[in-house]
Design brief:
This protein is α+β, with helices and mostly antiparallel strands. It has helices at about 30-45, 50-70, 145-150, 155-175, 180, 185-200, 225-295, 295-315, 335-350, and strands at about 75, 80-85, 90-95, 100, 105-115, 120-125, 135-145, 210-215, 365-370, 375-380. The strands form 4 sheets. The chain has a 3-stranded antiparallel β-sheet with strand order 3-2-5, with no helix packed on it. A 3-stranded antiparallel β-sheet has the order 6-7-8. Strands 1-4 form a two-stranded antiparallel ribbon. The chain is rod-shaped and about 185 Å long. Its main location: membrane.
Length: about 375
């Protein structure tokens, strides 16, 4: 039997809330919450009543707040980051990547990227050592090496590094001539600026590590740019000429050394040749000495004939018989000149290959040699050996 049917246990028209009101209206929510709070208040040791309602509400709020507080304490540090944990505003620890938990409102976690390469650029108009103004620009690549020092050693580590870069760059440029800054000394400026930058930043312990320093091309002021462009072009031409001269030197030096070596070898060969010839002449005279002692007159005449043959054989000659004819004769001077040249050449070649008793002669004319008005020898002087 339904609870709201007539005759239900003698309690007709009674609902579960014991509402005796005959009209079936909605239940009173206030009464319902009071009854529920009373039951739960009894469970927590309360005695019911209004105070029980407030105690139960506070308990629920506290439990929910603790749950929210506990869940909100979980956090994640990325792979490229390190987490700097602050407890009550002071440094507590540095945590590695992964899932972590910290008490909310007690600890604060600041993630710091330690893997990314950061870039910083410094530039400006600076005075060089030779009192010239130049526009310089430098790019610095760096990363965070110590998260704690990066956050707490200085107010702003990135800004401090920027100021240190400007100071180091001005110091180095101020001690360098403008020609070096613009052209040949750029590597030295880069290296010196890097060293000076590390010298400035090391005492501050900013937790930064400089990876690379790139010195960008410097420029003169716009007002004098054309003049400096001409000066730079002249310096480049100078370097080009020097390189060409060095290449020419590398090309010619081996050839010159070869020529020197060849001349030295020729000199040594000539020395040996002259020495051997001198020794041969000595041996010749030593061989003739016994013959001369045995027959001085014959040997003397023989030497005289050989000597005259050698002397006359290297010259062009024309023999004329002046007795019995007064006619004019035609002398072929051009042939004589050519014959003299060929004879001289033949004599020079033959002198090196002649024996003591035989010589090369070169001529195209006949001659008769007489000694003491007696014909001794009639020969035809020609090119070759007799």
């Amino acid at each position: 039997m339904a609870w709201n049917e007539p005759g239900n246990g003698g309690n007709k028209d009674r609902d579960p809330w014991q509402n005796n009101n005959k009209d079936q209206g909605p239940p009173d929510l206030d009464d319902m919450f009071k009854k529920l709070s009373g039951k739960f208040g009894g469970m927590f040791g309360g005695k019911g009543g209004g105070n029980d309602v407030s105690t139960f509400g506070i308990s629920i709020v506290v439990i929910i707040g603790l749950l929210i507080w506990g869940v909100s304490g979980f956090y994640t540090i990325k792979e490229a980051e390190r987490g700097v944990v602050l407890r009550f505003g002071g440094y507590h620890e540095t945590v590695l990547p992964g899932l972590h938990w910290n008490p909310k409102f007690i600890d604060e976690v600041i993630p710091v990227d330690v893997n990314s390469i950061r870039s910083l650029r410094g530039k400006g108009s600076m005075l060089t050592a030779d009192e010239n103004v130049v526009l310089v620009e430098m790019d610095v690549q760096y990363k965070v090496a110590n998260p704690q020092q990066y956050l707490f050693s200085v107010t702003n580590a990135d800004d401090s590094l920027s100021q240190a870069l400007d100071s180091a760059l001005r110091y180095v440029v101020g001690h360098t001539r403008m020609d070096s800054v613009l052209t040949t000394g750029r590597d030295a400026v880069r290296r010196d600026t890097w060293n000076k930058l590390e010298e400035i930043t090391t005492p501050y312990n900013m937790g930064l590590e400089v990876i690379d320093v790139n010195f960008l091309p410097a420029r003169p002021p716009v007002e004098v740019k054309d003049a400096f462009d001409d000066a730079i072009a002249a310096q480049e031409d100078e370097e080009r000429f020097i390189r060409e001269a060095e290449a020419y030197e590398r090309e010619k030096e081996p050839t010159a050394r070869g020529q020197v070596k060849r001349i030295e070898q020729e000199a040594i060969a000539y020395k040996e040749q002259v020495t051997l010839q001198a020794q041969g002449e000595v041996a010749r005279f030593e061989a003739l000495l016994p013959q001369y002692r045995a027959a001085p007159e014959v040997t003397r005449e023989r030497l005289y004939i050989e000597t005259m043959q050698e002397v006359l054989g290297s010259t062009s000659k024309v023999l004329m018989d002046g007795n019995g004819s007064n006619s004019m004769m035609y002398l072929p001077l051009d042939k004589l000149v050519e014959g003299a040249k060929s004879s001289a050449k033949g004599a020079s070649n033959a002198s090196s290959n002649s024996s003591p008793l035989s010589r090369d002669v070169g001529s195209t004319y006949n001659t008769d040699i007489t000694i003491n008005d007696q014909p001794v020898r009639s020969t035809r002087l020609r090119s070759g050996r007799e």
